Amino acid sequence: MKAQITITLKNGVLDPQGKAIEHALDALGFDGIGGVRQGKFIEVDLAEADPERARKQVAAMCEQLLANMVIENYSFEIEGA
Amino acid sequence: MKAQITITLKNGVLDPQGKAIEHALDALGFDGIGGVRQGKFIEVDLAEADPERARKQVAAMCEQLLANMVIENYSFEIEGA
């Protein structure tokens, strides 16, 4: 079973990396860009076969290690569930 | 219109960041982890209202700036399309 996790900065948290991308896209001539936010994408292979338990395991991983809950949100999908 | 872009390393490309996460999850007591791969997630606000043109614009952004096509793949979804 595969978990695809997306970790994004909470609204209001400064995102200098996103700003840098925005300026670079602008410099390359892309018009009409209202904003860019950068986050992380993490794919985890799990041995767990039960979707409900896999979901709980992934949520625990996000809260304990992968996401900084003060400034980041996480969301995930379980593939093959 | 919002584009949600996911950039992942191609298969076979070494991913030390993923390996580090894998070891850290293991050290925290998470069992049955077969592998971890880390990628990037980028959200871009577009002024473009036509879904087809937005798709082309985002593909061009990925190829010119966001993804290193030698070692990375990209995929994206257009929200509100």
Shape of chain A: elongated
Please report which band the strand proportion of chain A falls in: under 5%, 5-15%, 15-25%, 25-35%, 35-45% or over 45%: 35-45%
Number of helices of chain A: 2
CATH homologous superfamily designation of chain A: Phosphoribosylformylglycinamidine synthase subunit PurS
Q: Which percent range fits the helix content of chain A? A: 25-40%
CATH class of chain A: Alpha Beta
Largest sheet of chain A: 3 strands, antiparallel
Low-confidence stretches of chain A: none
The H-and-E topology of chain A, N to C, reads as EHEHE
Order of strands across the widest beta sheet of chain A? 2-1-3
Distance between the termini of chain A: 7 Å
Per the CATH scheme, the topology name of chain A is Mth169, Chain: A
Q: What is the β-strand count of chain A?
A: 3
